[in-house]
């Protein structure tokens, strides 16, 4: 069962390409999604597919002149339907490198971005700290000037790709302001440790910076304006979380529908029982409506990501909340079969819960949306 919004080329071709590739991962998805480490089979397949190229500008090995939020969104939808590990690997190449693409020095771009596009190296964005989550401005990691260099000290926690990434885009306090830096994972003083294990396995860790020296060339954008490339990254990639949520919800509905067609109770298929039919119909409506909203927001982000960040936030909020509702209904439809540990539907249940927290929790996004609504009314 599917309810696809109409697409024109090249995006329809991109969706078909991503769907074909995602289907090849079915045999590896269970193992990959259960691991807290990089699954080499999935990574090699993703590299060979060429899809990673959509996360980098064409000048450095990408597909489009500028990273296309709509293309990224569509690809994540298809990957998440099959393998959350593949979705994460794909998305983080863009999330970790986008600041470099728009604000890094020429030397940094030439050194790192072609290797990101090919999948030779993995990227990571290091924002979150033990005491700083949604409140980014309260971070304590520091960047102290030392001649023409900077000395970075601090700790980042719950960082995706920590320990596997070749570099980190790091936000640190430069005096009273925030600046962004490119820090190679191989730099002296950089180390990683394991973060607590999540309910949905994910390549995750803490990153420690102990007197890490980086040159002035490592500054991304302008000193004291580190939030600029970070906000730009959110503006381009937040809507793609909505795409992934739509894909996950669609997979859950597909699983529950198959079960409801084949499972008989009271002399008829579950699908023909009123309460079950209602759960499935409501789920289909949630998916169809949030897919349309997500695609619209992604198209707006193509034009001007920062100016339309509120639409990306709306899509992220609506799609992740809808995904949780859909998956919960689908577990209910499947009854005891929906409770089996590490079954496809049970994995969907765990994966959907995390999406309402990362890249902007629902509560924080609501605050931003309400603030924007207040500005519109006034």
Order of neighbouring strands in the sheet with most strands = 1-4-5-8
Low-confidence stretches are none
The termini sit apart by: 43 Å
Q: How would you sum up the global shape? A: globular
Number of helices: 11
Overall number of domains: 3
Indicate the CATH class of the largest domain.
Mainly Alpha
At the third CATH level, what is the topology name of the largest domain?
Answer: Butyryl-CoA Dehydrogenase, subunit A, domain 3
Fourth-tier CATH superfamily name of the largest domain: Butyryl-CoA Dehydrogenase, subunit A, domain 3
Q: Give the percentage of residues in beta strands.
A: 15-25%
How would you describe the overall organization of this protein?
This protein folds into 3 domains: 11-122, Acyl-CoA dehydrogenase/oxidase, N-terminal domain (Butyryl-Coa Dehydrogenase, subunit A, domain 1, Orthogonal Bundle); 124-220, Butyryl-CoA Dehydrogenase, subunit A, domain 2, CATH 2.40.110.10; 227-377, Up-down Bundle (Butyryl-CoA Dehydrogenase, subunit A, domain 3). 52% of the residues lie in helices and 16% in strands. It has helices spanning 11-23, 26-33, 40-49, 69-82, 84-103, 106-118, 227-262, 274-303, 309-334, 344-355, 362-377; strands spanning 123-126, 142-146, 149-160, 167-174, 177-184, 190-194, 204-215, 219-220, 264-265, 268-269. The strands form 3 sheets. A 4-stranded mixed beta sheet has the order 1-4-5-8, covered by helices on one side. The longest helix is centred in the middle third of the chain and has 36 residues, at 227-262. It is globular. 51% of the residues are buried. The model has no long low-confidence stretch (mean pLDDT 92).
């Amino acid at each position: 069962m599917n309810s696809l919004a109409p697409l024109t080329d090249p995006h329809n071709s991109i969706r078909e390409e991503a769907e074909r590739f995602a289907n090849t991962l079915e045999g590896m998805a269970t193992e990959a999604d259960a691991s807290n480490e990089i699954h080499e089979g999935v990574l090699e397949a993703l590299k060979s597919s060429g899809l990673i190229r959509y996360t980098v500008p064409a000048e450095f090995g990408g597909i489009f002149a500028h990273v296309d939020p709509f293309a990224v969104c569509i690809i994540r939808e298809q990957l998440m339907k099959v393998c959350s590990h593949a979705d994460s690997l794909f998305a983080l190449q863009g999330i970790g490198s986008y600041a470099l693409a728009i604000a890094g020095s020429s030397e940094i771009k030439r050194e790192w971005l072609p290797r990101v596009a090919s999948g030779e190296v993995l990227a990571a964005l290091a924002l979150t700290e033990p005491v700083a989550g949604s409140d980014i401005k309260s971070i304590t990691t520091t960047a102290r000037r030392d001649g023409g260099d900077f000395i970075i000290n601090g700790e980042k926690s719950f960082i995706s790709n920590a320990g596997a990434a070749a570099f980190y885009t790091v936000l640190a306090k430069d005096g009273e302001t925030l600046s962004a830096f490119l820090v190679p994972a191989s730099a002296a003083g950089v180390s990683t440790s394991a973060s607590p294990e999540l309910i949905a396995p994910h390549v995750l860790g803490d990153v420690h910076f102990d007197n890490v020296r980086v040159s002035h060339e490592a500054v991304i954008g302008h000193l004291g304006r580190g939030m600029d490339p970070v906000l730009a990254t959110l503006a381009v990639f937040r809507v793609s979380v909505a795409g992934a949520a739509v894909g996950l919800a669609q997979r859950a509905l597909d699983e529950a529908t198959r079960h409801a067609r084949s499972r008989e109770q009271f002399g008829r298929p579950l699908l023909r029982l009123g309460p079950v039919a209602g759960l499935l119909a409501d789920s289909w409506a949630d998916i169809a409506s949030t897919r349309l909203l997500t695609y619209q927001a992604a198209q707006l982000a193509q034009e001007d990501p920062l100016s339309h960040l509120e639409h990306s936030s709306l899509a992220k909020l609506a799609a992740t909340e809808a995904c949780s509702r859909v998956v919960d209904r689908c577990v209910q439809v499947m009854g005891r079969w929906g409770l089996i540990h590490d079954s496809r539907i049970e994995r969907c249940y765990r994966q959907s819960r995390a999406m309402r927290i990362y890249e902007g929790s629902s509560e924080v996004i609501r605050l931003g949306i309400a603030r924007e609504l207040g500005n519109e009314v006034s």
